[in-house]
Write a structure and sequence with these properties.
6 strands, alpha/beta, Nucleotidyltransferase, domain 5, 283 residues, globular, 8 helices, six-stranded mixed beta sheet
Amino acid sequence: MGERKPYLSDLSDKQWALIEPVITAWKRRHPSVSGHQGRYAMREIVNAILYQARTGCQWRYLPHDLPPHTAVYYYFAAWRDDGTDQTVHDLLRCRVREQAGRDEDPSGVVLDTQTVRASVSAPASTTGLDAGKKDRGRKRGLAVDVLGLVIAVVVTAASVHDNAIGIGLLDKVSIDNPSVTTAWVDAGFKKAVAAHGAGLGIQVAVVPRTAGTRGFAPLPKRWVVERAYGTLMLHRRLVRDYERRPASAESMVYWSMTGLMARRLTGTATPSWRTTPQPGLAA
């Protein structure tokens, strides 16, 4: 890491050890054009992505003691496009599930959507108006397991109906996690989602709100996905959708969860504004 002072979002040695094998193997398969291994340490590239996810800064506003934003974005985009970001994320998710005494592969998921406003840099063709919530921007669809860990993510224009997002999530779940046989949803997902799930071998069950309930009330099964959205909101890059491409927005969800799971696996508390920086953070 060199001589720079650590940021709260930096990976510790133990956390980097969880991710390093995947990143190192990727780097061996993708040497630079001149044949050398590159000017910037891969750990610092990952640290820069996690810094941006946590702080919400623009690419050009990455601190000067991190690699240049052009290099960081190059790797972010490459890992987004070839699925390395999800590979790293899924590896850590399996370990978190094992640590919790569960099988690596989930058998059930919870689906939900969240509308977030998009930045002015987001192309109009990828944004829209959520007619129900009267917000313009994008929708972020999540499929999470019973621990609230992300199984699949889909980002679309906010004008896209929950049915289409639910179908997209089920498709991703069935491809990457064929062990899933049950999906819990709210009433916003209609019969089309249940029919599509049946065709994939996934039973879709609606968890309705209790009659007469006003305001927020945690519901069986569904509360874990609400908690997942709340956890992701700790990352300022996700409070709005600042990405030009929906695929980048999906990737930022994976990286944010990767940072959280790395901390969980190493018994490190997620820093907050109340947290006093601890000596040896990067040790």
